[in-house]
Design goal:
Blueprint: E1 2-5, H1 18-21, E2 25-28, H2 37-48, H3 64-67, H4 89-97, H5 102-121
Antiparallel strand pairs: 1-2
């Protein structure tokens, strides 16, 4: 996982497009800069604070009503992997006759079967 840090546009007002001229600093998770003693102490103090002392007025907690319509995994997008698979010719013809996106349809059919099997296994 990589971490990106860039200057805020609000912090440096200027001409339009200046943000693209500033360099972005990127860190890989295994090569993050070391924490200073002061930063480490501040993080330790924050971790020790009880939750009721944290000011959440700018980010109020969600109510049960708001969570009622929440959907788990709504923004989840699984990684795709290229494979080679042998499919019966008539099955492939049927998928292709339905128009563009036959590979996506194959994936949707397989996902539906996977989820059905997962539900019945519970």
């Amino acid at each position: 996982m990589a971490w990106n840090v860039s200057d805020s546009l609000a912090a440096r007002p200027g001409k339009r497009g200046d943000a693209m001229k500033r360099k972005m600093v990127s860190y890989a998770s295994d090569k993050l800069p070391t924490l200073t003693k002061a930063r480490r102490a501040k993080l330790k103090a924050l971790a020790a604070r009880p939750d009721n002392e944290i000011d959440t007025s700018d980010i109020p907690e969600m109510t049960e009503e708001q969570w009622k319509n929440a959907r788990r995994g709504h923004f989840y997008r699984p990684r795709k992997r290229q494979i080679t698979a042998r499919v019966d010719a008539d099955v492939l013809d049927w998928l292709k006759r339905q128009g563009k996106g036959y590979q996506s349809r194959i994936n949707a059919i397989l996902r539906r079967e996977m989820l059905t099997a997962a539900k019945s296994a519970k």
